[in-house]
C-alpha cells in the first residue's frame, strides 16, 4: 500500500479497471481489450508505465474496436480478482476478444519484446484474429482488397471519400491508418498489398506505402504527404474537407446543428494567425471576463496589472489596439490606489475620451477560432493563441519589458499568464489544471525558448486530455499540434512512435506566432 497509482483515470488514455469493473468491461464487450495486470510496487511496472501511457494515447482513436487498460493487483481490493484471472507475475498482458460469453482469463500476449510498436502491431493481429461472429462492429474490415476492386471503387460514387493504402505485405501502416480513422465519418480506408508494377504505374505510385484518394465527386489521385508515415497519412485524411469526427452528441439535439447551418462561415487558412481572433479575444477578456467583478483590489489587481503590462508591451497587433493597451497599462501602473471599480477599467477600454487612433473592437468576430457551433472554441481558443503569441514575442523582443519590473526574467510572461488564468479565467477547472501543470514544471524554465516550448507542451497535454470530450469541436478534433501537414519537419518516427523534433517545433512556433504571420483579413 501507499505506492502511487501508476495510471490515472481521466488523465491518461489508459482505461483504469478494478475489481468492480474488469469483468463487466471485458465480458461480452463490443470492443476487444488489452489489459495490463500490474503491481504499483513492481519496478518493471513502474519503468514500463510511460510506454503503456504512450501506447494508449497513440491508439486512442481505436478505442471503439480495441482498448488499452490497466489493473493494479497491489490494491487490496483487487487481490481476489487478480487471482481469478490467474495472474502470477507482473506485468501480465492479456487480450480479451470482443463478445466473449463465458468468463475467460484472457489470452497471453507473446511478443519478442514489449516495445510500443511491437505491442501495437500485435493489437492489429489480434483484431484480425476475430471471426465474423465476434468481429467488433466499429472495426473496419482489415483484410486487403484486390487491385481490380480499386477500379470499381473509382467508378462508383457514394458520397464519401475512399482512401486506398498501397503497401507491401509486411506493412502495418494501412491497417493502422484504417483504425486511426474509426472516429471519423464520410471516409472509408481500404488497402491493397503487393500490387504489380503495371498497376502501380497506372496510379502513378513510385514508392510504398502510398495513398490513393477517391473524392466524393469522383475525382481521384495520389495524395502528397511529406513523409510516408502513418501519422502523416492519418492526419492528412482526418483534415479532408468532407471528413468529420463523428459527433458524440446524443440524437435529439438538432437545434444546435440547425443554428450552425445559419451561421456564416468564414473560410480561413490554418497556417495563419488572424488579428480578428486576437482582438475579439481581448474584447472578451477586458469587457466580458473582467466584468464579472465589480471591483479589483490587492493581489487580484496586481495580477491584472502584470498581465496587462505583458500584453501591452508584447501584443503585435494593429496600432490602435496597441495604443489602447499602452494607455491602460500606464494608467494601471500609475494608480496610487489598491482598489478600483471595474467600471473605471471599462471607461478606459471604451475610450470615453474618444482619443482618435486608440480603439479596440467591441464585436466578436472569430476566424481561425470559429466553432461549428456557437458554444465551441471562440474565446478559449483565442486565449491560447494570445498566450503563445506573447511567449514568442518575448523571445523575439528581449528588451520589450525593460523598465516594467518584469525585465530579465525568462518566466515573467508565463507567470503573468499563470496568475491571470488562475484568477480571472471563467473556466475554474481549466485554471486549476493549468495551475497544477505550472506547479509541476514551470520552475524549470530558464530561457525564453524554453518558455515557448513549455506552453506548447502543456497545451498539447490539455489537447490530449480533452480528446473525445463534449467540448471538442468535431470539425477541429483535438490532436497533437502542429499536425504533420502544418509542419512536416516537426514530426519524426522513433521506434514506431510519432515523435517531435523540438528544434523544428521551436522554429515553427516562432514563425506561426510571429508578427509576420498575422493577417488582418476580417478584422473589424
Ligand atoms: P485550442 O486548444 O483552444 O487551441 C487553439 C489553437 O491553438 C488551435 O486551433 C491551434 O491553432 C493552436 N494550437 C493547438 N495546440 C497547440 C499547441 N500545443 N501549441 C501551440 N498552439 C497550439 N477546457 C477543458 O475542458 N478543460 C480544461 O482543463 C481546459 N484547460 C484550459 C486551460 C487554458 C489555459 C485554456 C486557455 C483553455 C483551457 N480549456 C480547457 C479550453 C480548451 O483548451 C480549448 O481552448 C477549447 O476546447 C477550444 O478548443 P480549440 O479546438 O479551439 O483549440
TrEMBL record:
Residue ranges occupied by any Thioredoxin domain in the UniProt entry: 1-129
Disulfide bond in keyword set: yes
Cofactor(s) named in the record: FAD
Superkingdom of the organism of origin: Eukaryota
EC number: 1.8.3.2
Catalytic activity: 2 R'C(R)SH + O2 = R'C(R)S-S(R)CR' + H2O2
A GO-annotated cellular component: Golgi membrane
GO molecular function: flavin-dependent sulfhydryl oxidase activity; protein disulfide isomerase activity
GO BP, one annotated term: protein folding
Domain named ERV/ALR sulfhydryl oxidase: residues: 372-481
First-level EC class: oxidoreductase
Assigned keywords, A-Z: Disulfide bond, FAD, Flavoprotein, Glycoprotein, Membrane, Oxidoreductase, Signal, Transmembrane, Transmembrane helix
Function text: Catalyzes the oxidation of sulfhydryl groups in peptide and protein thiols to disulfides with the reduction of oxygen to hydrogen peroxide.
Family designation: Belongs to the quiescin-sulfhydryl oxidase (QSOX) family.
Protein name per UniProt: Sulfhydryl oxidase
Gene: QSOX2
Amino acid at each position: 500500500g501507499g505506492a502511487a497509482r501508476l495510471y490515472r483515470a481521466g488523465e491518461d488514455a489508459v482505461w483504469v479497471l478494478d475489481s468492480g469493473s474488469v469483468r463487466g468491461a471485458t465480458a461480452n464487450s463490443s470492443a476487444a481489450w488489452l489489459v495490463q495486470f500490474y503491481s504499483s510496487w513492481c519496478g518493471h511496472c513502474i519503468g514500463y508505465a510511460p510506454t503503456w501511457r504512450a501506447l494508449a494515447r497513440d491508439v486512442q482513436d481505436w478505442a471503439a474496436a480495441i482498448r488499452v487498460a490497466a489493473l493494479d493487483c497491489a490494491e487490496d481490493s483487487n487481490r481476489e480478482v487478480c487471482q481469478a484471472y490467474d495472474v502470477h507475475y507482473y506485468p501480465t498482458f492479456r487480450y480479451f476478444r470482443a463478445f466473449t460469453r463465458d468468463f475467460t482469463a484472457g489470452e497471453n500476449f507473446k511478443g519478442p519484446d514489449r516495445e510500443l510498436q511491437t505491442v501495437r502491431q500485435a493489437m492489429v493481429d489480434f483484431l484480425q484474429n476475430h471471426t465474423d461472429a465476434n468481429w467488433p462492429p466499429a472495426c473496419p474490415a482489415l483484410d486487403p482488397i484486390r487491385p481490380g476492386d480499386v477500379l470499381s471503387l473509382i467508378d462508383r460514387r457514394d458520397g464519401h471519400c475512399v482512401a486506398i493504402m498501397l503497401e507491401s505485405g509486411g506493412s502495418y501502416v494501412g491497417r493502422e491508418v484504417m483504425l486511426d480513422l474509426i472516429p471519423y465519418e464520410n471516409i472509408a480506408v481500404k488497402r491493397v498489398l503487393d500490387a504489380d508494377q503495371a498497376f502501380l504505374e497506372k496510379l502513378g505510385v513510385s514508392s510504398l506505402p502510398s495513398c490513393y484518394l477517391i473524392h466524393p465527386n469522383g475525382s481521384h489521385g495520389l495524395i502528397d504527404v511529406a513523409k510516408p508515415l502513418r501519422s502523416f497519412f492519418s492526419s492528412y485524411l482526418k483534415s479532408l474537407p468532407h471528413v468529420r469526427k463523428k459527433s458524440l452528441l446524443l440524437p435529439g439535439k438538432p437545434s444546435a446543428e440547425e443554428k450552425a447551418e445559419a451561421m456564416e462561415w468564414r473560410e480561413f487558412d490554418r497556417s495563419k494567425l488572424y488579428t480578428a481572433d486576437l482582438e475579439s479575444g481581448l474584447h472578451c477578456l477586458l469587457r466580458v471576463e473582467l466584468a464579472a467583478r465589480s471591483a479589483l483590489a490587492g493581489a487580484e489587481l496586481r495580477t491584472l496589472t502584470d498581465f496587462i503590462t505583458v500584453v501591452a508591451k508584447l501584443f503585435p497587433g494593429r496600432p490602435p489596439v496597441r495604443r489602447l493597451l499602452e494607455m491602460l497599462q500606464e494608467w494601471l501602473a500609475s494608480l496610487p490606489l489598491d482598489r478600483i471599480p471595474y467600471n473605471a477599467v471599462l471607461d478606459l477600454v471604451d475610450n470615453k475620451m474618444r482619443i482618435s487612433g486608440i480603439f479596440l473592437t467591441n464585436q466578436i468576430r472569430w476566424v481561425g477560432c470559429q466553432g461549428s457551433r456557437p458554444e465551441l472554441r471562440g474565446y478559449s481558443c483565442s486565449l491560447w493563441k494570445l498566450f503563445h503569441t506573447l511567449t514568442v514575442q518575448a523571445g523575439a523582443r528581449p528588451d520589450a519589458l525593460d523598465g516594467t519590473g518584469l525585465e530579465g526574467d525568462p518566466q515573467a510572461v508565463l507567470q503573468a499568464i499563470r496568475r491571470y488564468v488562475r484568477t480571472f479565467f471563467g473556466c475554474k477547472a481549466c485554471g486549476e489544471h493549468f495551475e497544477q501543470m505550472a506547479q509541476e514544471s514551470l520552475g524549470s524554465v530558464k530561457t525564453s525558448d524554453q518558455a515557448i516550448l513549455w506552453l506548447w507542451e502543456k497545451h498539447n497535454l490539455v489537447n490530449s486530455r480533452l480528446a473525445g470530450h463534449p467540448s471538442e469541436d468535431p470539425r477541429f478534433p483535438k490532436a497533437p499540434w502542429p499536425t504533420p501537414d502544418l509542419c512536416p519537419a516537426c514530426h519524426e518516427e522513433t521506434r514506431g512512435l510519432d515523435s517531435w523534433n523540438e528544434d523544428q517545433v521551436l522554429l515553427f512556433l516562432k514563425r506561426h506566432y510571429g508578427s509576420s504571420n498575422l493577417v488582418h483579413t476580417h478584422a473589424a
